[in-house]
Amino acid sequence: MLGYRFSKFIPQKAQNESAFDNLLNIFLQLVSITGGEVAESLNWLTNLDNEYNITDGSYGVGDFIDELKDKGYLTENNQTGNFEVTDKTGQQIRKSALEEIFGKLKKSGQGQHKTNIPGTGDETGTERRPFEFGDTIQQIAMTDSIRNAQINHGPGDFRLTEDDLEVVETEFKTQTSTVLMIDISHSMILYGEDRITPAKKVAMALAELITTKYPKDTLDVIVFGNDAWQIEIKDLPYLQVGPYHTNTISGLELAMDILRRRKNTNKQIFMITDGKPTCMKVGIKYYKNAFGLDTKILNKTLNLATQCRRIHIPVTTFMIASDPYLKEFVKEFTKANNGNAYYSSLKGLGHVIFEDYKKNRRKRY
Predict the structure, then answer these.
(1) Of 93, 114, 83, nearest to 26 (Cα)?
(2) Are residues 357 and 255 in the same domain?
(3) Same domain, yes or no, for 191 and 154?
(4) Which of 37, 149, 215, 292 has its CA 20 to 30 A from that of 25?
């Protein structure tokens, strides 16, 4: 009888990966999930080891902790005995996020972004055109030009004239300023679904991508709950959700203020959220309504979307929820801003943001 025989899947260990590297990968994930709580992360790691036998008899979690300190991932407070993460740990978490989400991206020199505007640029494109006065010798496509000469004059009377020359179009490079808004309202961990950890990973991967591949671009990260505030990239791995409502208005206002100070022509906002706006500040008080799309809050949010459009700042919304009323709000918001919206699963969020980032970098707003 034909059929299939199923057995327990036992993944193979990565080749040339030491016991330390294997535990480090798990530890970095745990540190990000716990918001930088080293003691809690090590406790989880010990429990995982007890249940799944991650280590063998020759190398245990205690050895791993000693090696973390020796290699500069942890420091120990001599007075309290508590462990604290170092900047090296945060950098390694960002690199791991980049690898996990965007794959094995290779650095390619001075990272810049192409526009769709041809001209006297400094990066070779793919388009060909006839030679014009002012084109440089370096732009001439010799193989194509010689082929044209053979076609135009024949192999018996070979000569290369100006009319035979083709040049490779060059493209301008742009610099881009991006503000990434991350929703840290309580709904990001409701109903047993951890949405904040994937959002953090995407932010860390994007930050690492920009700083390594596109160093002349800028990335500012802000979080928004009842209020909005800017955070440093190094603090991303330890970001946590709070008992907040969703003040999208405050986040957009802060993002616009940041981008007004940037001198780049290309500016954009990425917003990762799973909920509708439920809060706004009126004077020193908060106006809140968590039960629906409140008209007062909605109108103010849409007004800000329109303002962003007028100053040429597109907003790309990455919605990690599927509520039909929420989709209708996103549709209105996107129409007011003339931006983009994606209803992405947590699994595909990173790839969607990466592709949109590359696509927008080729525009000149």
Answers:
(1) 93
(2) yes
(3) no
(4) 215
Q: Are 114 and 123 in contact (CB under 8 A)?
A: yes
- Summarize pLDDT for 139-180 with one digit per residue, the tens: 888 888 888 888 888 777 778 888 888 888 765 567 889 999
Among residues 70, 85, 100, the one where a domain terminates is 85
**Residues in the chain, how many?**
365
249-272 residues labelled b (16+ CB within 10 A) or e (exposed): bbbbbbbbebbeebeeebbbbbbb
Q: Please name the residue that has the structure tokens 């549709």.
A: 331
Phi, psi of 17 (to 5 degrees): -100, 120
Residues 256 and 299 in one domain: yes
pLDDT of residue 9: 61
d(Cα 365, Cα 265) in Å, to the nearest integer? 7
Q: Are residues 157 and 190 in the same domain?
A: no
The count of structural domains within the chain is 3
**Nearest-10 crossing angle of helices 19-33, 196-213:** 120
Yes or no: say if 278 and 286 are a contact pair by the CB < 8 Å rule: no
Return the HEC string of 50-93: HHHCCCECCECHHHHHHHHHHCCCEEECCCCCCEEECHHHHHHH
| Predicted local confidence at residue 116, as pLDDT | 41
